[in-house]
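Name: Two component transcriptional regulator, LytTR family
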Amino acid sequence: MIKCVILDDELLAISYLKLLCSEMENIEVVKAFNNPKVFLQEINNIDCNICILDIEMPGMNGLQVAELIQDKKIIFTTAYKEYAAEAFDLDVVDYVRKPIKKERLQQAFEKAEKLLGEQRKNQFFEWNTNLGKTRIFVSDVVYIKTSEIDSRDKDLKLKNHSEIILKNLSFKNLSELLPQKNFVQINKKEMVNIDFIKVFSSSEIILDLASSEGNPIKLNISDTFKSQVSEKLSK
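Structure predicted for Two component transcriptional regulator, LytTR family:
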């Protein structure tokens, strides 16, 4: 289900968008606003994943509003084509010209649904572990190493210092489960979440996590993986 919030200074435009959304499956309009300032005061407390923003509004336009929104996908609507380039610079889902047609709005929602699906996929993965089938949130994963007990398994270190054993999982398959932009393999036996790299050189990295003895965790970068580590960390 896509939950959206509408912001448009024209009440007729809001009513029309609500009507179009009501004719589509799996689309729910949670709330609508005709004042950008009120919208910004409330949006962070609303359970929604899409914001449909009109661009041309008095006081504060939709482009300015979009820059202040976090963790929401944005679809712009406007009658003015000159905003297109600036709108896409903000990495929005779509830019829909007024008068809005149902088919065109449907296309925008389909794009949004695809992006939201990818986002959900990147938030967690499920795998058989020493605890049974477990849902693991990727933002909690610090690094992964090959198990010393069984090389087919992987020891996964979490940011709360707990450990989970991933059963019978290769690094190749693990790379398909994890968001590639966040993880990099540094040698044959270890992979790290780049968000937890505190210091790195050509031969080693230091993680922003202490070992059980209280010392910073240091890991070696092998010659085979140096170039891909350097490339990933330079982005």
